[in-house]
Amino acid sequence: MKPGDTLMKHYLQFKDFRAEEYAYLLERTRIIKTRFKNYEKYQPLVDRTLAMIFEKASTRTRVSFEAGMYQMGGSVVHLTTGDSQLGRAEPIEDSARVISRMVDLVMIRTYEQAKLEAFAAHSRVPVINGLTNEYHPCQILADIFTFIEHRGSIQGKVVAWVGDGNNMANTWLQAADILGFTLHVSTPGGYEIDPAVAGVQNPGCLKLFKSPAAACAGAHLVTTDVWTSMGYEAENEARRAAFADWCVDVQMMQLAQPDALFMHCLPAHRGEEVAAEVIDGPQSVVWDEAENRMHVQKALMEYLLIGRVG
Ligand code: CP
Ligand code: NVA
Question: Which GO terms describe its molecular function (predicted)?
């Protein structure tokens, strides 16, 4: 997009944007975050409204979008399945037609990606994925920004994913493909990542490992996630048994680069997918990672609503 160009775009998965758009967004994030830290008012979204639809629980996604939108001068409407007609089987297409006539932007957290896509197909305004079973692009955008803040460019680096081949893993794989880094993945049998879900162009960006320790060897970033994602709670016991050896611990971190970072999208379960010494230790940047959700999403909302600025 050129300055002032407001051709409508959605952000439904990480691969919806090109590397050059990410370079722009990450630089805008840096500027927007610096202004926020200096208490400089920046309100380009006055009179704009964001609708946030949650069909699953959230702390970070809600607070970061809501606070970010208010800081930029806009306002928000918060809907959940329980307090709207979404929970009473109103078709998603009808909900999209109605909601998008009244607001300027929609963020949705739901189950199947297909539901998000159906909403977007019937929306008059841009739609953002706030997490689906398949992807979590806003989180990976924050993670990449956090990596760059601490270590510089992620191009050519190695990111180790230890754990479930879930929405986070799929999105890391899309990011590796687009931004030119390598993703090492180790999952228990039966919980593998499916590269077809990510739809990568460059298969060389993915390396699979049976052992989580081997996946961590030489990594610049080690990251993991809960063993049981939202919507999969019925599998909790089976997963607890299957994932027992996929806890990121101090030994695994010692195999990574000496200055490797640790990330987790949160919420975390200490003693399950990560040892307390790791998530609360000096290599962990999880609190920066959480805060950066707000800064990257402010840049994203600015981009989707007013295009390129400056
Ligand atoms: N990481 C993340 O999306 O957190 P919430 O589930 O709290 O929104
Ligand atoms: N994979 C997790 C991420 C939570 C932010 C889930 O989908 O529940």
Answer: amino acid binding; ornithine carbamoyltransferase activity
